[in-house]
Description:
Elements: H1 6-13, E1 17-19, E2 23-25, H2 28-45, H3 48-64, E3 67-69, H4 73-80, E4 89-93, H5 98-111, E5 118-122, H6 123-129, H7 133-146, E6 151-161, H8 164-169, H9 171-188, E7 192-196, H10 208-229, E8 237-241, H11 252-265, E9 274-277, H12 300-312, E10 318-320, H13 333-336, E11 341-344, H14 346-354, H15 360-373, H16 384-391, H17 400-404, H18 408-428, H19 435-441, H20 454-460
Parallel strand pairs: 3-6, 4-5, 4-11, 5-6, 6-7, 7-8, 8-9, 9-10, 10-11
Antiparallel strand pairs: 1-2
Helix pairs in contact: 2-3, 2-7, 3-7, 5-7, 5-18, 7-9, 9-10, 10-11, 11-12
Amino acid sequence: MTFASVQELVQGTRQAIELNGGVKVKDPTALRGDIIDRLIHTAVFGQGDVRESARWLIWEIGWAAGIRSASIDSLYQARSRDEYSATTVPAINVRAMAYDFARAIVASAKRRKVGAFIFELARSEMGYTDQTCDEFATVMMAAAIKEGHTGPIFIQGDHYQADAKKYATDPEAVIDGLKQLIRQAIAAGYGNIDIDTSTLVDLSFPSLAEQQRHNYERCAELASLIRDLQPAGVNVSIGGEIGEVGKKNSTVEELEAFVTGFGEHFSHGRGLSKISVNTGSSHGGVVLPDGSLLKVAIDFDTLRDMSAAARKHGLGGAVQHGASTLPAEYFSNFPEVDTLEVHLATEFQNIILDHGAFPSDLKQEAYAYCKDKLANEWAKGDTEEQFIYKTRKKIWGPFKQQVWELPESTRSQIRSQLEEKLEFLYEQLGVLDTSALVAKWVSDTPKITKPQPEALKTVAA
Length: 461
């Protein structure tokens, strides 16, 4: 399935595209058939020149087909001015079966005219799913090509988080690591980056400003780097965070302290688009001994108040993390309280792994991997069900190619259930028929270019 060489890649795509210094799509139907599937397989599992050529080609094909990697900031600025309301943008973490899952996101969005949705990948997920920034952006673009999407797509770096323990002993090394990640994300074509230095909040100080100081100072430093690196004409959407998800619930007063402090340390133009808060959720949910999830309470009143406070400062509103495993009846509350954005991850992973079409032998092999390789993460007192639930997210890197190459009949069944869940969420979150809204506020997106590999230039000449 993978193209074996750059020459084979050029020959194998000639039916659908023309290389003439740039890229021209000659046959969109042929492109969306086996050609894009082979290209993205090569971009992920190929090696050296052919892999880099496939990645560049997919990126260029996307732009030629009218797909634009964009910042959502202008839409969020419109929300801060009350130009629209009752719309909560879903930001979806694409951990598992990345190409198929992204296809499901795009297909369901296209069917319901959803323009306001975000593909995202957290810093921690990059490691255990074996996805670099460049690979992730390429796969999201390929999925959009496959499903015939046109218009902007929003690719987001989620939870670019500072490790508090490491920061305590070597703060500059921690910040330098985040700066390197930001450079990779912008080079890959991301238009949206969420900085999470909320881990540096120190509640031992008496005043909120002192508690938030390391958070807002470091966030401002990293946001300044983003503004220095972003392409001409692009205002990357930048998110800040005041409360670590799963910890103490955030307050309006903490938000005010953070935003004020950030403003005093940031002078690089447009500031933050949004602010993430904690209102009672946790990443992945709280798993009980039998493997089921604890029903949690979300403080929707405070979420409303924090969104209103954020808009007074020119931000679009507050962001809710750790939401995908919440009870179904919760989701309609988010747009009702003007939540700007909600982050969704674990439930989609659960749909994939627990689907009847997912091969049981592969699942058992993956669970055996957890018990063998991740035994040190088995918390004292946890049942096997709890241990597996907490660690199975880490199978996606080691089993990436096996899952990617499951039969199409298997993958299509899983995509179908993912689409069903996505359409439910789109409706509950108020983003149906938002293609026109996005087109109104996210227009004239400058092209984000990447250097063409020399090997491709040589062969295509």
